[in-house]
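Supplementary Methods S3. Complex input for the flavin-adenine dinucleotide-bound model.
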Amino acid sequence: MKNLNTFDVVIVGSGIAGLSAAIEAINANVSVCLVEKLPSPGGNSLISDGGIGVVNSDLQQSRSVKDSVELLKTDMLRAGGHINDPELVEIVASQSNEVYEWSKTLGVKYMDRVDIFGGHSVPRCLTPKNKSGRDIVDVLYQHAKKQGVTFYFKTMFDDVIFEDGIAKAIIVRQNYRPSHNSKNKQVTISINKSLIITSGGFGSDKDLIAKHSNLPWNIESTNLPTATGEVINSIEKIGGQLIHMEEIQLGPWTSVDEKGFGLGPLYGDYIALPKGILIDPKTAKRIVDETADRKIVSDAMLNIGRFALGLTDDKIIKDSEWDISKLLKKKIVRSFKTLDDLALHYGIRVTYLKESVQQYNELIKQKKPDPLGKDLTDKTTIDTPPFYGMRMSTRVHHTMGGLRINPASQVLDRNGHPLKNLYAAGEASGGIHGKSRLGSMAITECMVMGRIAGKTAAQ
Ligand SMILES: Cc1cc2nc3c(=O)[nH]c(=O)nc-3n(C[C@H](O)[C@H](O)[C@H](O)COP(=O)(O)OP(=O)(O)OC[C@H]3O[C@@H](n4cnc5c(N)ncnc54)[C@H](O)[C@@H]3O)c2cc1C
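Predicted complex, serialized as structure tokens:
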């Protein structure tokens, strides 16, 4: 087989984890190439909101939010059902501010706001200026290119040549097109030092999801269709250990009225769950503590077996300072002058709905504990028209499982020993989030562990 080229460090996957690794590796004066099956960089990172969870950021401090590494660790371990690796959690939490500052130094710009998602104890999510992962990907990609990283796009990783316990080369197909089952000739790229796997999660890999979970075959996904697990499968074959493959996160804030990730999460994730209520249209009863982590909310949604209605009012929308005009125009979110109109539209019994909303408002007014366990301290009543509703559903969003790594980002074998020159970071790795990843902690993880992988792999 023809050898295309030889590099000190070879990286597979050009999302935020891969780009972060590439930048750190090239900084160490080694030759670096990055292989990507798509025609351009970014993967799921590009279509993400780019929300990054940061402890003690300048934006948190300017709002006097009291936070600590310990508190973020506690939140991540609680959401993760304490099956996550505490050492890896500590690394991600303690370096969150460092990577946020690093991204700013490279040129990423953030909005002047701090949001809170389910399962976080305090607001700590920062959002790039255009509320898009593209803001981060573009900056990292341009920087990596300028520093001399070689990029091979439309280049599909097929396998790894692994001899004497060392990754010697990867086998790739160039001019790859996901829509065609291309039979292009395979070539190798030889590795002088290390191989880093940053090929992302498998949220669109129906076979792998079916193998590891009981989720319905037809469940939708927020991921790119190319988010598949062929790379981690190859690494497993040569002895890499997989961990938590059955932990597949559903995102409980998409709209049933659009496909994929869509626009709905702006209302669902940033407004309705943290500030509004989620009700079963059949009973008009709230179904869960809306601020709980994604797993708890998704399980409650699956339990009712139909869409859940995310309900807010004018006060909540204005207070959020988000512009939802696009969602209203596309009828993903609808507004109603009265609760009667809203009930009629969604087929909810008016009396049930009014009773439910009134009960919720009374809890807040009388400062009573919420029977569903939500902390109502800073919550507002739902009583100011217009009222807003979105038919919410849950979809595959994140795969917590993947290649098991140690704090140096080395891939471990089935006995827990590091494979000599093999590293992984980002969603291709597993063990950091356990049973449930908290919103905004994937981007943080990708930057922290990607940078570590890049630095150590180049040594
Ligand atoms: C719609 C959406 C919104 C999200 N929003 C947020 C958010 O706001 N905050 C947050 O923290 N998390 C968010 N997430 C999760 C987060 O975006 C991902 O976990 C993270 O971006 C993964 O980054 P990565 O670098 O590990 O992988 P990716 O960004 O997915 O990159 C992996 C790359 O590897 C490539 N690849 C895969 N297999 C091969 C192969 N065989 N050969 C060559 N290349 C290959 C892929 O094409 C892809 O480009 C969101 C996810 C989605 C889907």
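Residues 441-458 form the longest helix (18 residues). The two ends are 29 Å apart (CA to CA).
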